[in-house]
Design brief:
237 residues; alpha/beta; two-stranded antiparallel sheet; 7 strands; 49% helix
Length: 237
């Protein structure tokens, strides 16, 4: 792949004097239950079958604070600002030590959620838009972003099928939307979806109907990603 100059949301990280990489960054956004993991696994296998090396990044995966963030969330007592900065630290540690080296090496990086989720969560929890944008301004702009959108009630069903429970934070219980976790989940997910719709107009990422069959979603992702990588082979799902 040819070397290309990467863009940033705002200011450049001090560690980066140049941002010319031959690798590509694709972000798959969507709430828990949207099918991100399934789609990323299939995309990875497809890319590797076409000769590309793939690296994964995602939320709460940094060696620096990934485990600590998981532990801190268990107590359900984190303030909104502390939660935001925890996730920001997790993201930028991966950006510097995982994502950028992979792009320099010419790999395809698949992000299982990216800064859009983090910004949507922060804004929904009351953070000022300008503060949030400034916090993530050193982040790299992906080559493409795909948001898997699923209705809030469908998400409830999928999460119950997966784990027979709803997550405290993914239900927005810290926001006091409702004492009932089911009602709170519906309200919180709809708030996030509204924020993603606003961001889609600003950042221009692709919205994919994740209520469709897994095969249909995968076909669309391969079509979009393949076009950006110059893959002209038929899309097999």
């Amino acid at each position: 792949m040819p070397i290309a100059e990467k863009k940033f949301f705002g200011r450049r990280l001090p560690e980066l004097q140049k941002a010319e990489f031959s690798g590509r960054l694709f972000a798959i956004e969507g709430p828990d239950g949207s099918g991100r993991s399934t789609q990323i696994a299939q995309i990875s296998a497809w890319l590797e079958a076409n000769g590309f090396a793939v690296r994964h990044v995602g939320l709460r995966r940094s060696n620096l604070v990934g485990e600590e963030l998981d532990e801190a969330k268990q107590g359900n007592v984190l303030t909104h600002t502390t939660l935001s900065l925890f996730y920001a630290t997790d993201f930028f540690d991966q950006l510097v030590h995982e994502l950028i080296p992979a792009l320099r090496a010419g790999l395809i990086v698949l992000a299982d959620r990216y800064v859009y989720t983090l910004m949507a969560r922060d804004i929904t929890r009351g953070a000022e838009r300008e503060w949030t944008r400034n916090l993530y301004s050193p982040a790299l702009v992906p080559d493409a972003v795909f948001y898997l959108r699923v209705g809030a009630r469908q998400l409830v069903e999928r999460n119950f099928q997966k784990s027979a429970s709803l997550d405290y934070w993914e239900s927005g219980m810290d926001l006091g939307l409702s004492r009932d976790m089911f009602d709170s989940f519906i309200k919180y997910q709809r708030m996030l979806q509204a924020e993603f719709q606003k961001m889609q107009k600003e950042y221009g990422f692709q919205i994919i109907n994740a209520n469709l069959r897994v095969e249909s979603i995968q076909k669309e992702l391969r079509k979009q990603i393949g076009a950006r990588l110059g893959l002209s082979t038929p899309i097999q799902v």
